[in-house]
């Protein structure tokens, strides 16, 4: 993930100062443990200033509005208590070439500053600190005790100190070429390494951009550069400094990330704010998606393994109970042939009532024939009662296994991150597992259980133009089948295979063609656990014939008056590849 360097931070602050200052602070919202949003209102606009101290993605920019969820963090409440209604009057670096921004708040523009919010963009040491006019720390996003850092503790009530100054010479636009070349080439090494050690305020990303613009390899040795190479490199070095001096930035996407300089950009972006918001939102979503997908997959696999052990154990007990009839038969035989029993016998062989085949019966030599028969009757009754107790338990565990296999199929379908809807689908699955008591609720970030997730359905169009909706998880499956489905629609599902509910929206009077039915069946097969099969049986019926058993878990449905059509997952996959 590309970190925000001094150049990017300068570009962001320059644009914020131009377009968003002064602004009135109206609200503070903390989205997660690393991000706060400040609601700012200027004379002509309103927006949310996003400040992140994430270890890999610390940044500051105008971001997207927060979700409609309660804010349970104390840090945001402390900020709101002190800053509510004040004006943001300044946004600028505290010290040249350092990645620390000072957000200053006053009652009105032009009046004395009352509060400072220091935003430290420094990788894993990033932080946000609120201080008063006496430079005393009122609160901080991340408290640092003296035990963790004897150099620079950050705690409420202490004086705020800037991070230790960086070593290296500060870049200067008026530095002559000869002095610059001498400084960089003093100790021959890789160009990237020499520049990083010689000057402050520069980053590996910046050096790679300058080197690429000069058609050089940042890893090549400085003693291999020609005079022309040095001059070309110095030209872009000066161009970079000139951009900083004039604040004429050119935000855009590169092949590997983003840039605020005009070199190497493959697609321009309207503003630095939009650039940073899109990049870090996307990167953090991808990171969260991967972590959440792994967490859910591992949890479900663990639960399924435990359930299978229970199933195997119950089935073994049922097999034992199958011997109940055998014990009863032996007891009946023994009672019918009491005269053949002799004291001290350890076993007796008697002929079967029906087949006449000999049956060996083990006996307790310390008991008589009647007592042995009573013991066999008792054992048979015990096994019969065990079957009556185990069978409902087995059915319950198998039902739970079927449900979790349905959830596992839903997680497997969201196999890669393509949009925020994919992450939302996984979050809904996590929330479902929390509600079903399979996962513990996190201390933050709980979703609203009543939040409408219909916008996250997969949406496609059949050959005749009918809308096809596909649930991404069990919550959406229930919503699709029991809330969205209309009287004229058609409901599809892989036959007796965990998978998504698929709904074809049919307008009154319209009749889907065979191609439409096949299209829907292909997607029902594709979004099922049998995705890798060539052909999958898919049932379809009207939604009025689909029911949810009383007390059933999310995503579970039974149906009747169904018809079967063979779905081909490969056809759906080819359609998706062509549409992308």
TrEMBL record:
GO terms for cellular component: RQC complex. Gene3D superfamilies: ibrinogen binding protein from staphylococcus aureus domain (2.30.310.10). It comes from the Bacteria. One of its GO terms (molecular function) is ribosomal large subunit binding. Residues 297-324 form a coiled coil. GO terms for biological process: rescue of stalled ribosome. Keywords: Coiled coil, Protein biosynthesis, RNA-binding, rRNA-binding, tRNA-binding. Residues 457-550 form the NFACT RNA-binding domain. It holds the Pfam family NFACT_N. Transmembrane segments: none annotated. Belongs to the NEMF family. Associates with stalled 50S ribosomal subunits. Binds to RqcP. HAMAP family: RqcH_B. Key component of the ribosome quality control system (RQC), a ribosome-associated complex that mediates the extraction of incompletely synthesized nascent chains from stalled ribosomes and their subsequent degradation. RqcH recruits Ala-charged tRNA, and with RqcP directs the elongation of stalled nascent chains on 50S ribosomal subunits, leading to non-templated C-terminal alanine extensions (Ala tail). The Ala tail promotes nascent chain degradation. May add between 1 and at least 8 Ala residues. Binds to stalled 50S ribosomal subunits. This is Rqc2 homolog RqcH. It comes from Chroococcidiopsis cubana SAG 39.79. The gene is rqcH.
């Amino acid at each position: 993930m590309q970190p925000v360097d001094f150049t990017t931070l300068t570009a962001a602050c320059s644009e914020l100062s131009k377009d968003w200052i002064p602004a009135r602070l109206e609200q503070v919202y903390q989205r997660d443990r690393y991000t706060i949003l400040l609601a700012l209102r200027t004379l002509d606009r309103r927006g949310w200033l996003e400040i992140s101290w994430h270890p890999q993605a610390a940044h500051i920019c105008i971001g997207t509005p927060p979700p409609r969820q309660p804010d349970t963090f104390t840090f945001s409440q402390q900020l709101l208590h002190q800053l509510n209604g004040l004006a943001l009057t300044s946004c600028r670096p505290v010290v040249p070439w350092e990645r620390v921004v000072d957000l200053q708040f006053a009652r009105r523009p032009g009046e004395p500053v009352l509060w400072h919010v220091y935003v430290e963009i420094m990788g894993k040491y990033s932080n946000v600190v609120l201080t008063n006019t006496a430079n005393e720390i009122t609160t901080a996003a991340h408290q640092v005790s003296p035990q963790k850092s004897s150099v620079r503790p950050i705690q409420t009530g202490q004086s705020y100190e800037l991070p230790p100054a960086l070593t290296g010479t500060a870049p200067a636009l008026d530095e002559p070429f000869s002095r610059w070349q001498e400084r960089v080439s003093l100790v021959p090494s890789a160009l990237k390494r020499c520049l990083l050690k010689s000057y402050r305020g520069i980053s590996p990303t910046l050096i790679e951009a300058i080197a690429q613009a000069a058609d050089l390899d940042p890893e090549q040795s400085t003693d291999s550069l020609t005079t022309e190479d040095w001059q070309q490199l110095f030209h872009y070095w000066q161009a970079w400094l000139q951009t900083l001096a004039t604040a004429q930035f050119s935000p855009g996407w590169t092949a590997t990330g983003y840039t605020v300089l005009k070199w190497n950009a493959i697609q321009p972006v309207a503003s630095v704010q939009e650039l940073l918001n899109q990049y870090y939102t996307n990167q953090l979503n991808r990171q969260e998606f991967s972590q959440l997908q792994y967490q859910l997959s591992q949890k479900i696999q663990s639960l399924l393994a435990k359930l299978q052990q229970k199933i195997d154990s119950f089935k073994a007990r049922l097999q034992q109970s199958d011997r109940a009839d055998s014990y009863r038969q032996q007891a009946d035989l023994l009672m019918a042939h009491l005269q053949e029993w002799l004291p001290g016998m350890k076993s007796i062989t008697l002929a079967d009532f029906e087949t006449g085949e000999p049956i060996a019966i083990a006996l307790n030599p310390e008991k008589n024939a009647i007592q042995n028969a009573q013991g066999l009757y008792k054992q048979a009754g015990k096994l019969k009662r065990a079957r009556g107790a185990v069978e409902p338990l087995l059915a319950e565990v198998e039902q739970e296994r079927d449900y979790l296999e349905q959830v596992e199929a839903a997680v497997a379908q969201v196999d890669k991150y393509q949009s925020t809807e994919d992450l939302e689908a996984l979050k809904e699955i996590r929330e479902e597992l929390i509600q079903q008591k399979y996962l513990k609720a996190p201390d933050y970030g709980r979703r609203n259980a009543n939040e409408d997730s219909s916008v996250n359905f997969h949406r496609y169009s059949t050959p005749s133009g009918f809308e096809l909706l596909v649930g991404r998880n069990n919550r959406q499956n229930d919503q699709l089948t029991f809330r969205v489905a209309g009287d004229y629609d058609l409901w599809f599902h892989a036959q007796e295979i965990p998978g998504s509910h698929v709904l074809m929206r049919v307008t009154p009077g319209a009749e889907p063609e065979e191609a439409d039915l096949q299209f829907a069946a292909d997607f029902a097969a594709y979004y099922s656990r049998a995705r890798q099969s060539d052909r999958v049986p898919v049932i379809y019926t009207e939604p009025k014939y689909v029911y949810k058993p009383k007390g059933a878990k999310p995503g579970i449905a039974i149906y009747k008056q169904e018809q079967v059509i063979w779905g081909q997952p490969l056809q759906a996959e080819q359609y998706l590849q062509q549409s992308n």
